Amino acid sequence: MASSTTHATHTPGEWRAESWIDAPLAGATTVLVDDPSTVLGKRVIAHCQSEDAVADAQFIAEAPAMLSLVQAFVENIDEWDGEPTPGQRWHKEYVAARALLARVMRP
Question: Is the pTM of this model over 0.85?
Fold first, then answer.
């Protein structure tokens, strides 16, 4: 199957997790990206407020990098060998990666 490259329309830029040092609620962490068009120069991607807030925010902040890896995996398999059939090397991973891309990509 030929790869049809589509790019997600997520907020561009380097996402990062920042903990609130003086947060009134323990564990508050925000995923941010620099955005000079906003008053404070930052755009909030997600706000995590739980016992696992730091880990959750760090995981969310890596989403664009993980998306790029999945896209590269599918594109490289398509380019090198074509879509693997059941029983071939990387078939399960390829199918899972394509399904993931279908869930997160927007036309």
Answer: no
